[in-house]
Amino acid sequence: MYDANHLIRKLAANGPRDKVFATRPGAADMTYGALFEGAERMAAALVAAGLNPGDRVAVQVEKSLEAVQLYLGTVMAGGVFLPLNTAYTGPEVAYFIGDATPRVVVCDPSSQAEVAALAADAVVMTLGPDGEGTLPVAARRESRFGAVARGPDDLAAILYTSGTTGRSKGAMLSHANLASNSETLCQVWGFTERDVLIHALPIFHTHGLFVATNVALLAGASVHFLPRFDADAIIAAMPEATALMGVPTFYTRLLDHPGLTQERTQAMRLFVSGSAPLLVETHERWEAATGHRILERYGMTETNMNTSNPLDGERRAGTVGRPLPGVELRVMRDGTEVSQGEIGVIEVRGPNVFQGYWQMPEKTAEELRPDGWFITGDQGMVDADGYVTIVGREKDMVITGGFNVYPKEVESVIDALPGVRESAVIGVPHPDLGEAVVAVVVPDGGIDEADIQAALASGLARFKQPKRVIMVDELPRNTMGKVQKKALREGHASLFS
Ligand code: AMP
Question: Whose CA is nearest to atom 5 of ligand 1?
Fold first, then answer.
């Protein structure tokens, strides 16, 4: 009965009704039948609230299986799912609502009054972390729902980019963008109905919502559904699970857990990392502790996943693997493709690439070429075997005294020093050089600025050597584990003035 809805038809195809879709600590299991029946009722409730095909449903709620049903129900009703980071505050939410003009806004019961004031033109409904609220009440009153016809090119979701420069942009993702990428990942990562995926990622971001949830559904697999990252709960779940998808901080935190052993991870077949660079050191420590090599992949909100290390074959630490089947990747500089091994800006093309930015035709034209190539803004290179290495964001590149410095190169040298846990290299204004290279370092022992400067003196060209090394207890990161370089640049902007 989902036949005419491109994405839902695929997501619902492989989980038999009585198969368990999700287990969760302290709450009842949920079968595929219950998952989709609940999604149908939510779809019916959204339509009753006035949702028409193509309308946006903005959602800022805590992670729950009912929130997954809301995602599926929105797509089933022909709507466009628009998840918002739970950390966004009132003024930020006001921007998204003003920009996306959703027909329905679903928020936590605790913020209903505030959201209602921001979204005067929308129907505001609530959904709490316990799965209760005005939306589930309305959904229970509805009967089941047949799914609105939607084709491959219709929009299924808008995800706002984190907006490190300027305003956040809404990346429009079609049914085919999501379905094709999940199908590819299912196949290259070997997901089947026998898999049990530990799902501890947030579901307002492409990683937890599309990579983890869609892949599990497509495979007819089960998920062990955790509301958030919890090292104890993940370690406890491992003997009954087969796969984990995480950001690098998941892995560093699990490595600090005394329960992480070879024996604990024996039943697991796959550990995937992405959304931020995985340190080579973390890769190696993980293998030493568990016997497993982490599989690192690379993607982004606008493109879903682009590259992956292989399931079978060499998983090369420090690289994000090769382009996925059906995805083309090239490295460009000054309008031409660079030679193999040279650094430039990564562009990708394929069925995964988004439809453009919501109501921002100029931004879309700047980043998405008419022939389908998307300019990612990530700088990287491809080696002789086709493995891609990301060296940083284009806007994070430091230009000092006319020389280009790629932060990743300097970070890798610093990270390899004994006594260093991790580092972030930034450029800050400098009266003479334009920008100066500055390293922000988390020590792991008694190392100080002078030690690091001395150790780098012989290993790096002079212009790449940091003018200052600042020691900190930890690097600022967002929920997806990305180091907030903008915050670091702002915090140290007056270092040389
Ligand atoms: P987002 O749109 O929030 O998913 O962020 C996408 C960005 O995260 C990419 O453009 C990259 O800069 C970065 N990213 C994602 N995966 C990786 C990875 N495996 N290694 C390095 N950077 C990554």
Answer: 300
- Average pLDDT, 10 consecutive residues per value, the chain (497 residues): 95 97 95 98 98 98 98 98 92 93 98 96 97 98 95 98 73 98 98 98 96 98 97 98 95 96 97 93 96 98 98 97 98 96 97 98 96 97 97 88 87 93 94 92 93 91 93 92 92 94
Backbone torsions φ then ψ of 66, nearest 5 degrees: -65, -30
Give the bridge partners for 270, in sequence order.
243
What's the CA-to-centroid distance between 142 and ligand 1, angstroms?
40
**Residue 166: per-residue pLDDT:** 61
Which residues approach ligand 1 with their CB closer than 6 A? 161-162, 206, 274-277, 296, 298-301, 320, 376, 378, 390, 393, 480
276 Cα–ligand 1 center, Å: 5
H/E element holding 112? helix 112-118
**Pocket test residue of 300, 324, 367 for ligand 1, highest count of atoms within 8 A of CB:** 300
CA dist 358 → 50, 155, 373, 496 (Å)? 22, 11, 18, 40
Query: What predicted TM-score, i.e. pTM, was given to this entire model?
Result: 0.91
Which pLDDT belongs to residue 21? 98
472-to-227, 249, 415, 428, 487 alpha-carbon distances in Å: 30, 17, 14, 17, 14
Distances (CA, A) of 429 to 112, 398, 411, 424: 43, 10, 19, 16
pLDDT at 431: 86
Best residue among 294, 295, 378 to mutate for probing ligand 1, ranked by most atoms within 8 Å of CB: 378
* Amino acid, res. 269: R
Please tell me the distance between residue 210's alpha carbon and the centre of ligand 1 in angstroms: 15
